[in-house]
Amino acid sequence: MWKALAFKDIRETIGIAALGLLALILAASAAMRIAVDPTGLVMGGGPHDSEIPFVGGTFKSHFTVISFLLVAALGFRQSLGEMFQSGYLYLFHRPISLARVLAVKMIVGIFIYLVCGAISILAVGLWAQTPGTHASPFEWSMTIPVWRVWLSMPVIYLGAMLSGMRPARWAGTRLAPLVGVMVLTALIQDLPSWMILGPLSLLAVAAVLIINIVSVSRTRDYA
Amino acid sequence: MPNAIETHRLTKYYGSKCVVDSLDLKVEQGSVYGLLGRNGCGKSTTIKMLMGFVHPTRGSAELLGQDVSQMPPEMRSQIAYIAEGHPLYRWMTVGQSIRFARAFYDRWNHELLEQIIDHFALASNAKIRRLSCGQRAQLSLALAVAQEPELLVLDDPTLGLDTVVRRDFLESLIQIIQKAGRTILFSSHILGDVERVADRIGILVDGVLRVDCPTETFKQSIRKVVLEFDHTPPAIPTCDGLIGSWQIGNRLELVFVGYEEKHRVVAESLEPRTLEVMELNLEDAFISYTRGHRRSLPLLHGERPDVEGSRV
Description:
CATH topology of the largest domain in chain B: Rossmann fold
Number of helices of chain B: 9
Order of helices and strands of chain B: EEEEHEEEHHHEHEHEEHEEEHEH
Largest sheet of chain B: 6 strands, mixed
Number of strands of chain B: 15
Helix content of chain A: over 70%
Strand content of chain A: under 5%
Number of domains of chain B: 2
Strand order of the largest sheet of chain B: 7-8-9-4-10-11
Number of helices of chain A: 8
Oligomer: heterodimer
Structural class of chain B: alpha/beta
Distance between the termini of chain A: 26 Å
CATH class of the largest domain in chain B: Alpha Beta
């Protein structure tokens, strides 16, 4: 049954994942100075030889925006999307606990994002490590700020999922968890001693969100 | 016989609006129970409360002896539920949908499922989004039956189906489920369907279970009395059981619930030129019963042969 649930959720999110991956590859390509965006619109004008990979340039900001859109889309698709055409009435009546159904959804959604995000960061990192590609020094430690963003995005995904799960009369209150998590995540990015406090804080926020998602799914009416 | 479904003062409010009001429903094991009512009367909310999708404001419900709010997930394998509109994943093919559903059940009658799929001529590689409403209903029924449930709950299963598909669906339902003596609860707007299938009916009016009796008892209880006058009909006296009256020229139509001799006496006291007492079919009886003055409707109680103190 795990396989069946996972297959269903992968199949339902594959389109979003493909679009997200394409956008991340475009962002990575721009950072690697590969002209894949002849319009210059998506990546904002193209690379400059003087940019230091991961330090200068726009890769981090592009990566952040695209990652946010990707995790938000995944979170809403896997929660709100189930509400359309009364899919939840079919899915939630299967003889499996709601918590397990949600666990599979979250694992699939987060895994898809982490893979897509990691591919683009690693691509740019491997390019930057290759001699002769750019006129600046490179250490893998220079990628840490982007990995921080990468690691923070699952929390945003959970915020989007909670926004999709909870009943709300208007968009403002529906989006409250997502907006709240965005603010928290931004604050966590600037924590001192991030390598220790950052992951711990993200884990704490994720735990609160997961508890809320399960609680809301159990207590809300599916009218 | 024990009850497959039992509710105790089940109540649901949405805001200040009471959608289901103190529902005490009992459905015996092995019976086919038709839940009727006009749009917005609380049928779907009742069914969703029974399935645990809507939490009652007050009261409780038990399915197969288990409190719905405490029901372990495994128990849902004994209860099949076909929601209104036959929700299935539209991107799946028929075959994928079967494989998906099968993954959740230890007990799965694949042979029976294939027979039903074959009977309905559903192609395994057909996309569900390309199926007609009737075909989706057929697939939903096949999937529900394959899990070999003890209880089958269907929310308006024939909604949107044409007459032929509806008849075919219901006949399959009767053959497949009733043969094994399982319990069925279904809601419907189509009285002909209910008349064909249900042993017993319940009628919800504004969230209140006004009728709970064998189908035949309900039909026998409602009578229309047609009075013809030579002049304008006189004012109608108040009378217990009178649920509707219509004046058309010199003709007066009275509808009584629980019709008996005293009603005839009341009708005769109006001194009509002619008086005719008419039996109604279930549809006419239902319409007459539910379109009257809603709040003043009398509760129709009858005997349940083997359950003491129950309502008919």
